[in-house]
Amino acid sequence: MKKNQIHTVKAQDGQWKNIRAGAQRASGVYSTKAKAVEEGRKIAKRSEAEHIIHLFNGKIQNSNSYGKDPCPPVDKK
Q: Element (H or E) spanning 41, and its range?
């Protein structure tokens, strides 16, 4: 994992957590995914990090970059 990433994941206890890449502890623990995603987005924006949102099974659902994106999108909207 890259250092400047925030991962929103479901823990085995059923709670949703925001974990900074390389950290041992969660930045926050939430009862709903929506609240965890909202707080994870805030943390990522403050840190100019990439926010990676996982499904309940661990697969990546979505990711957003806040800050300098090393791989910017090709299509300009």
A: helix 33-47
Domain positions in the chain: 5-58
Cα 66 from Cα 25, distance rounded (Å): 22
Task: Identify the DSSP state of 45.
Answer: H
What is the pTM for the complete model shown?
A: 0.82
- pLDDT tens, 3-47? 689 999 999 999 999 999 988 889 889 999 999 999 999 999 999
Question: Could you give the 3-state DSSP secondary structure of residue 56?
Answer: coil
Which one, of 21, 26, 49, lies nearest residue 36 by Cα? 26
* Pair 39, 18: CB distance under 8 Å: yes
| 2/20 Cα distance (integer angstroms) | 9
